[in-house]
């Protein structure tokens, strides 16, 4: 069983190894194109098998039967496959035939070219022809390109290596549960990150897609979705992922893409994600130059969709080369054309034109569309007067590979009441740094979407802007006009600095401590004058009192108890997974439930808890759930697979087996839980080795000090460099020679003997550790096969949820600790008054004068 994470890792490692110096944005077309052709071949064979036999047969037997079937009843079989799949691949053009040719040593690149060309001809007259037309055209998959190799031999070698990368992957099996589609999306994303700015035109970062798609998916009764700048199709597919299975079955997908290679990419991507050809309409064209899709019967209305999502190219210059007028139905609502120097509002108006009356549109654009004036200001005013702008979401800068500017997601709707306020969300400061990019965490995405749904105001984060406010701001939507950034800096109090004491208004801001343990706080404060206090005990003492207070401990215990019940409930569901399609719904339910659980506790951040559970899924559960779904929990726990490791580098890089590991349980966990005594013994010996190494290091340093006993005895035994300078270790051979040639009664003999003994002890212990580690490794490998159900339960619980209760319980203490830290800062800030500082200055001046008088000037 190979999981999606293992596929992703293997394919990306293979891509990096095989592409050499070829640009990532170009190599992706070859890799993803051939991966898709393998999918078409596997689907053809799978469909043929379903039509002809229910027996279990090998792949070689299936291919032989397919050859025979085509020879005996070709036209009939072709017609059946065409009706079932909308396409077919002939036996001589199967991906498996290429592999057979490679294995026989008679592979030719021309055979691949012929296969790709024949596929396009074979579907030319079918009703699904448009979905496959020019998928493998030279503009996308030019196998004669010298970038693949300077001559035919080199190109053949590189293409063979790429073909073999997918040789053992069953694309039909991997399509279940979207494993194949996820791997394809992953590769698109990795190529985009590698290609940098060149990738911006076709790829929307996953976290931005998630924000837009989850919002769009909240629209009731979605039956159609449209992306006018569809790129790789990630936005369409992310919306699909957040819909119910029933909604997915009736969903139709529309998209347009200007770049031909990317247009081919999106069609492949949708097909790999089990979008049927009759459910998708993707067009290669310029969205702004000519309106599409059109309804001939209603030319002034355009085709309407339940959801519109888009990530258009930012601030496109000279977008109106087609000479469009304001009379174009798409722009009539605005009353003016967007400026030719910036196409942002042109894309927005196009999407809005195609938005259904009860639909939702989400578009990501540069921050400037919120406040730029002239024609853009007029358009924004008109949209706000119509009340089409529902939500403004400010995102961090540097989210995209092709630009570092901050962006916003605008949500638009046509069915809003004129009195409905505009929700403004400032999520520009919620991110983490991953390499050069800023990234939204799962908790950040969840908070944005939850705020969108609840439409609740939160200081420093969200605000409902009324029509009156927007008019007062002259239709400028710049987020800082509506949301003040939270200033974590606490203003200084002049009286506090002059006379000392923590101001009362600062103490009143310690909301969590005052709500949970007000008496402890009050008893720790002493008034120094009205409205000013000082602490009568150390912060460390107060912290201990508050954090160990029964009220806090009770809350932590209550949260721990509820968390345990929550884990127990989902444990039984996780280990019972038997279908890959159960995985994502179960994950979503588990994430939603943790928010509900934490919401019943005051003061803690539910999204911090959400992130804890999200990371459990990302780091372990998604991978493990796939394995459990393919077999069953206890069988998977006792299943042993080869542990493959990479060795060597460059031309000598190879993969070799290094024993066995469990499909589910890390060997380190088995060792720590079931072989604790053996591990302790190994660790003790390692500690002893470190002690011996420390003693030897001390003797080496002492031996470098001239005129010392160690120097006289040991200097000649030190290793030397080419310049005869001593290094930081002993030369064992020299040491033995010195010991042999030194009389036992000599003064230097005991030190030589001591070093020899230390080295001997270290060597013996090192050999023992290696032997013990080898024995433990073998024991763990054998134990995998005989683990009991109870042992598997214990080990997997520790792997998945070992520290979950502790991490969630810490959320109770987190805001309290933050306020205690603030209290400590305030206490230190106002401890030194102006009077005390003046006294200290006077004292220091007096001391200085006294010292100066004692100075004697000599000639």
TrEMBL record:
Entry coiled-coil feature ranges: 675-702, 827-854
Signal peptide extent: none
Stored PANTHER family: SITE-SPECIFIC DNA-METHYLTRANSFERASE (ADENINE-SPECIFIC), SLR6095 PROTEIN
Highest taxon listed in the record's lineage: Bacteria
Record-level GO BP terms: DNA restriction-modification system; methylation
DNA methylase adenine-specific domain: residues covered: 176-486
InterPro entries: D12N6_MeTrfase_N (IPR022749), DNA_Adenine_Mtase (IPR051537), DNA_methylase_A-5 (IPR003356), DNA_methylase_N6_adenine_CS (IPR002052), Restrct_endonuc_T1M (IPR004546), SAM-dependent_MTases_sf (IPR029063), T1MK-like_N_sf (IPR038333)
Catalytic reaction annotation: a 2'-deoxyadenosine in DNA + S-adenosyl-L-methionine = an N(6)-methyl-2'-deoxyadenosine in DNA + S-adenosyl-L-homocysteine + H(+)
Family the UniProt entry places it in: Belongs to the N(4)/N(6)-methyltransferase family.
Any matching Pfam family: N6_Mtase
Annotated NCBIfam families: hsdM
Keywords linked to the UniProt accession: Coiled coil, Methyltransferase, Restriction system, S-adenosyl-L-methionine, Transferase
One example GO MF annotation: N-methyltransferase activity
SUPFAM superfamilies xref list: S-adenosyl-L-methionine-dependent methyltransferases
UniProt name for this protein: site-specific DNA-methyltransferase (adenine-specific)
Domain N6 adenine-specific DNA methyltransferase N-terminal, chain residue ranges per copy: 7-163
EC number: 2.1.1.72
């Amino acid at each position: 069983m190979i999981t999606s994470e293992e596929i992703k890792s293997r394919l990306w490692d293979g891509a990096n190894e095989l592409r050499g110096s070829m640009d990532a944005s170009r190599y992706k077309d070859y890799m993803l194109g051939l991966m898709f052709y393998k999918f078409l071949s596997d689907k053809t064979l799978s469909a043929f098998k379903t039509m002809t036999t229910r027996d279990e047969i090998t792949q070689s037997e299936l291919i032989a039967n397919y050859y025979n079937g085509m020879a005996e009843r070709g036209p009939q079989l072709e017609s059946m496959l065409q009706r079932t799949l909308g396409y077919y691949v002939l036996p001589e053009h199967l991906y498996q035939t290429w592999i057979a040719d490679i294995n026989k040593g008679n592979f030719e690149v021309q055979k691949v070219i012929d296969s790709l060309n024949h596929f396009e001809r074979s579907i030319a007259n079918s009703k699904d022809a448009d979905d496959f037309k020019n998928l493998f055209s030279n503009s996308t998959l030019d196998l004669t390109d010298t970038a693949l190799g300077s001559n035919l031999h080199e190109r053949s070698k590189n293409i063979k290596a790429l073909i073999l990368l997918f040789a053992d992957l069953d694309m039909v099996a991997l399509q279940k549960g979207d494993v194949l589609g996820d791997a394809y999306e992953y590769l698109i994303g990795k190529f985009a990150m590698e290609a940098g700015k060149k990738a911006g035109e076709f790829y929307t970062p996953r976290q931005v897609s998630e924000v837009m798609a989850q919002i769009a998916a909240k629209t009731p009764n979605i039956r159609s979705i449209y992306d006018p700048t569809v790129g790789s199709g990630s936005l369409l597919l992310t919306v699909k992922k957040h819909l119910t299975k029933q909604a997915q079955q009736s969903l139709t997908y529309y998209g347009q893409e200007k770049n031909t290679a990317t247009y081919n990419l999106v069609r492949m991507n949708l097909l790999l994600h089990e979008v049927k050809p009759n459910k998708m309409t993707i067009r290669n064209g310029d969205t702004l130059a000519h309106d599409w899709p059109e309804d001939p019967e209603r030319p002034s209305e355009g085709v309407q969709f339940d959801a519109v999502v888009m990530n258009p190219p930012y601030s496109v210059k000279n977008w109106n080369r087609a000479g469009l007028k304001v009379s174009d139905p798409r722009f009539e609502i605005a009353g003016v054309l967007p400026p030719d120097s910036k196409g942002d509002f042109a894309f927005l108006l196009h999407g809005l034109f195609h938005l259904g009356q009860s639909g939702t549109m989400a578009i990501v654009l540069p921050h400037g569309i919120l406040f730029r004036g002239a024609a853009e200001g007029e358009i924004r005013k008109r949209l706000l007067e119509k009340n089409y702008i529902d939500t403004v979401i400010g995102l961090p800068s540097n989210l995209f590979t092709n630009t570092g500017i901050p962006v916003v997601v605008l949500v638009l709707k046509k069915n809003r009441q004129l009195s409905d306020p505009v929700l403004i969300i400032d999520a520009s400061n919620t991110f983490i740094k991953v390499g050069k990019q800023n990234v939204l965490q799962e908790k950040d995405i969840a908070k944005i979407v939850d705020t969108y749904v609840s439409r609740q105001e939160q200081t420093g984060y969200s605000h409902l802007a009324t029509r009156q406010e927007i008019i007062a701001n002259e239709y400028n939507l710049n987020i800082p006009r509506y949301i003040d950034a939270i200033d974590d800096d606490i203003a200084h109090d002049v009286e506090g600095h002059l006379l000392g004491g923590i101001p009362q208004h600062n103490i009143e801001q310690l909301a969590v401590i005052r709500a949970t343990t007000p008496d402890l706080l009050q008893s720790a404060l002493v008034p120094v004058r009205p409205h000013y206090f000082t602490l009568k005990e150390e912060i460390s003492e107060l912290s201990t009192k508050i954090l160990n207070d029964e009220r806090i401990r009770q809350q932590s215990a209550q949260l721990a108890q509820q968390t345990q019940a929550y884990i127990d409930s989902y444990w039984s569901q996780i280990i019972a997974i038997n279908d890959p399609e159960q995985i994502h719904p179960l994950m979503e339910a588990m994430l939603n439930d943790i928010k509900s659980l934490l919401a019943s506790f005051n003061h803690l951040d539910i999204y911090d808890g959400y992130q804890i559970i999200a990371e459990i899924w990302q780091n372990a559960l998604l991978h493990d759930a796939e394995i459990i779904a393919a077999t069953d929990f206890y069988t998977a726990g006792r299943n042993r697979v080869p542990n493959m490791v990479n060795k060597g580098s460059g031309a000598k890089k190879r993969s070799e087996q290094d024993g066995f590991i469990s499909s589910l349980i890390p060997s380190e966990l088995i060792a720590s839980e079931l072989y604790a005594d053996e591990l302790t013994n190994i660790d003790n010996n390692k500690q002893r080795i470190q002690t011996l190494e420390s003693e030897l290091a001390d003797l080496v340093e002492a031996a470098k000090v001239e005129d010392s006993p160690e120097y006289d005895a040991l200097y000649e035994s030190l290793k030397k460099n080419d310049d005869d300078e001593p290094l930081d270790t002993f030369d064992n051979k020299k040491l033995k020679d010195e010991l042999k040639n030194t009389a036992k009664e000599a003064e230097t003999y005991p030190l030589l003997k001591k070093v020899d003994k230390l080295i001997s002890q270290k060597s013996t212990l090192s050999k023992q550790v290696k032997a013990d580690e080898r024995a433990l490794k073998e024991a763990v490998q054998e134990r995998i096969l005989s683990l009991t159900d109870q042992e598997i339960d214990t080990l997997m619980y520790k792997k998945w949820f070992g520290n979950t209760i502790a991490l969630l319980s810490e959320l109770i203490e987190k805001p309290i600790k933050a306020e205690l830290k603030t209290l400590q800062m305030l206490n230190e800030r106002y401890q030194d008054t102006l009077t005390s500082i003046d006294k200290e200055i006077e004292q220091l001046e007096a001391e200085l004068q006294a010292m100066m008088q004692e100075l004697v000037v000599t000639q």
